[in-house]
């Protein structure tokens, strides 16, 4: 990115007020921005991802780390991963140009507003297709599941230090972890099967079957929250402030949204079960689409759907679950796995390398054995690993199917069954009683059900911190295993590649937003400073009049009141100018922020951001995922010491790098005397 042009600032009573008009012109396409520093923006993100150290600069009121991502090592897609450090707290504001307060709604999310009070229906096309009665969107991550090319090169990001030398067992979930599905066809299968169940088994209107081809897997993203009772789907920031809300497919206006989700009235522990449901896995995306579709239909056809909104969501969940249980999905995947499953050529080499490192390997999945065997056999054979007669089961010491997570991680009473891999028959087992783990596993290493105590015995681990578990489901794989058992965790987020690629392509726009928000801060400070000075002089004039009438006047007060150098009318005019420029810069920030978020997703914006704050999803990633990456196959360095950035609060940067940014000019100070004799 080109260096930003020099800035000339003025300071009224010690607070910076930069001329606004050139910046507004640049923000709307009129040229390069005159405010903002390259090393405060993300202009170095591309090199940062491949090893350049982060630059940290102090620039007055809004000081922060500029580099969001810091990669060390020569990894990447072809080089065995790579390590990237993500200073999540230090740079929480950086990815969206600074942190807004919980109540700061200047940065309205794209497409979620309407000019009037009734909201708007969202619609667009994908591949030339317009869905009847249900909108579709373009612009989200394309197939394959992990976006190829761009700035993302297979890095793993670290939230908590993790020394692999202390890990004695590594485990994996299967669906959307080892097995990445082609989302469009796999989710369409789930959507159509569930829609059929809703109509034929639960009595919903037959007319809904006409919508069977309307599904668009790009429309919703994970991390959203379903408000069951109201029929809404919402996105919140880490403070649980609702920034985007849809009723069905209709975007709620700002007024509607704030009336329903008033932060002054919402309890801190709200937005939880049983009234709300979190879309915390890709598997739940069809649920959201079905729910929105039914809410829209109910509103458009009064009386045809008599179930409450909450019951509609319950029925949607039952219908989707039934598709997974009754064989509807499994049979079609088994018949043509290549149509539904993406083959990652790095996957099997990664698993074999971990196994050769001497660690115990286990598979822990909620899928039953017959389906697990189909999927894993396909992945193993597609990689060419089965040509010499080897079997995928050789990569694992323990295989547990039908685990019923999160129950597996919580309830020690759940029984364990041994699976005969040839006949698919189950047999009772009490687990290890007298023999060693090796002796017990010699009788078969494939199981169903059980609980974490069985697994710890089979792996011969003493504490949960010896286990690294890799999964995609925030609640069932990551949150519960971390909180309940102390397992170390790695979250697989296929959408991460798309997020980083867009982030890297929008550094110039991000710099503009950053400069505008700094400008807004300085205008705010100048406005408040000048306003306070006017209030002070008003008070002195009142005091002088009151004391003069009582014969107790102060010479000092009278001298200041009668100061001929002070021109009140010019100070008032300057105050109005500041107010006008604040209004202008606020409008431009809103426009720029909307355009920035639209680059990630036309409705929901960034996965990891809600407005200018971390999203609730990002907060959970930071809290519960020791590591996170776009693909499980990136975990190809079995002896790595993963290190995170130190935690930082905004004040930690106050006395950091105080160097003057290059390309700036000396600040011109405006004092009260400047309002005299003008």
UniProtKB/TrEMBL annotation:
What's in the keyword line of the UniProt record? Hydrolase, Magnesium, Metal-binding
Instruction: Kindly name one Pfam family recorded for this protein.
Output: 5_nucleotid
Q: What is this protein called?
A: 5'-nucleotidase
Family designation: Belongs to the 5'(3')-deoxyribonucleotidase family.
Q: Which InterPro entries match?
A: HAD-like_sf, HAD-SF_hydro_IG_5-nucl, HAD_sf
Q: Does the keyword Amino-acid biosynthesis apply?
A: no
The record ties this protein, via PANTHER family, to:
5'-NUCLEOTIDASE DOMAIN-CONTAINING, CYTOSOLIC PURINE 5'-NUCLEOTIDASE
From the record, what ranges are coiled-coil? none
């Amino acid at each position: 990115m080109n260096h930003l042009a020099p800035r000339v600032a003025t300071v009224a009573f010690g607070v910076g007020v930069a001329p606004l008009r050139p910046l507004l012109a640049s923000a709307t396409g009129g040229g390069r921005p005159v405010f903002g520093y390259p090393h405060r923006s993300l202009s170095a993100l591309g090199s940062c991802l491949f090893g350049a150290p982060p630059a940290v600069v102090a620039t007055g009121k809004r000081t922060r780390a500029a580099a969001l991502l810091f990669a060390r090592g020569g990894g990447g897609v072809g080089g065995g991963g790579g390590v990237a450090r993500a200073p999540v707290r230090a740079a929480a504001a950086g990815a969206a140009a600074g942190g807004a307060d919980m109540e700061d709604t200047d940065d309205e999310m794209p497409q979620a507003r309407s000019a009037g009070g009734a909201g708007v229906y969202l619609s667009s096309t994908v591949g030339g297709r317009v869905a009847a009665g249900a909108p579709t969107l373009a612009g989200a991550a394309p197939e394959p599941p992990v976006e190829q090319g761009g700035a993302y090169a297979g890095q793993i990001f670290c939230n908590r230090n993790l020394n692999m030398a202390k890990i004695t067992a590594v485990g994996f979930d299967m669906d959307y972890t080892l097995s990445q599905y082609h989302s469009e066809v796999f989710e369409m299968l789930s959507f159509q099967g569930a829609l059929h169940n809703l109509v034929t088994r639960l009595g919903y209107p037959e007319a809904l079957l006409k919508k069977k081809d309307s599904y668009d897997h790009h429309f919703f993203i994970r991390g959203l929250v379903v408000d069951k009772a109201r029929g809404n789907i919402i996105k919140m920031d880490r403070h649980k402030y609702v920034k985007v809300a849809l009723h069905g497919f209709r975007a709620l206006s700002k007024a509607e949204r704030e009336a329903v989700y008033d932060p002054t009235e919402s309890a801190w522990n709200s937005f939880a079960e049983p009234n709300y449901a979190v879309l915390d896995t890709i598997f739940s995306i069809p649920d959201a689409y079905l729910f929105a579709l039914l809410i829209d239909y109910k509103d458009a056809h009064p009386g045809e759907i008599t179930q409450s909104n909450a019951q509609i969501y319950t029925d949607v969940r039952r219908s989707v679950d039934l598709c997974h249980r009754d064989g509807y999905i499994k049979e079609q995947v088994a018949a043509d796995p290549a149509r539904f499953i993406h083959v990652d050529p790095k996957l099997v080499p990664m698993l074999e390398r971990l196994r050769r490192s001497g660690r115990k390997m286990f598979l822990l999945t909620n899928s039953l054995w017959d389906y697990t065997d189909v999927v894993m056999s396909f992945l193993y054979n597609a990689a060419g690993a089965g040509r010499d007669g080897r079997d995928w089961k050789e990569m694992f010491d323990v295989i547990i199917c039908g685990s019923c997570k999160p129950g597996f991680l919580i309830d020690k009473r759940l029984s364990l069954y041994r699976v005969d891999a040839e006949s698919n028959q189950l047999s009772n087992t009490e687990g290890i009683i007298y023999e060693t783990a090796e002796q017990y596993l010699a009788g078969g290493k494939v199981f169903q059900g059980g609980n974490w105590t069985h697994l710890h015995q089979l792996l011969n681990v003493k504490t949960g911190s010896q286990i690294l578990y890799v999964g995609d489901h925030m609640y069932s794989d990551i949150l519960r295993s971390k909180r309940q058992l102390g397992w170390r965790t790695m979250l697989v987020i296929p959408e991460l590649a798309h997020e980083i690629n867009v982030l890297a392509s929008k550094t110039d726009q991000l710099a503009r937003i950053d400069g505008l928000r700094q400008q807004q801060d300085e205008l705010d400070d100048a406005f408040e400073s000048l306003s306070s000075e006017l209030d002070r002089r008003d008070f002195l004039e009142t005091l002088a009049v009151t004391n003069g009438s009582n014969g107790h006047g102060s010479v000092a007060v009278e001298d200041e009141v009668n100061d001929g150098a002070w021109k009140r009318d010019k100070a008032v005019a300057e105050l109005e100018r500041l107010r006008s420029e604040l209004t202008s810069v606020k409008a431009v920030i809103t426009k720029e922020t909307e355009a920035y978020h639209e680059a990630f997703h036309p409705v929901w914006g960034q996965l990891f951001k809600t407005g200018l704050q971390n999203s609730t999803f990002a907060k959970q990633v930071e809290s519960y995922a020791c590591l996170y990456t776009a693909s499980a196959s990136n975990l190809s360095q079995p002896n790595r010491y993963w290190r995170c950035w130190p935690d930082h609060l905004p004040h930690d940067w106050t006395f950091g790098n105080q160097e003057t940014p290059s390309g700036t000019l000396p600040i011109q100070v405006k004092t009260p005397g400047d309002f005299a004799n003008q």
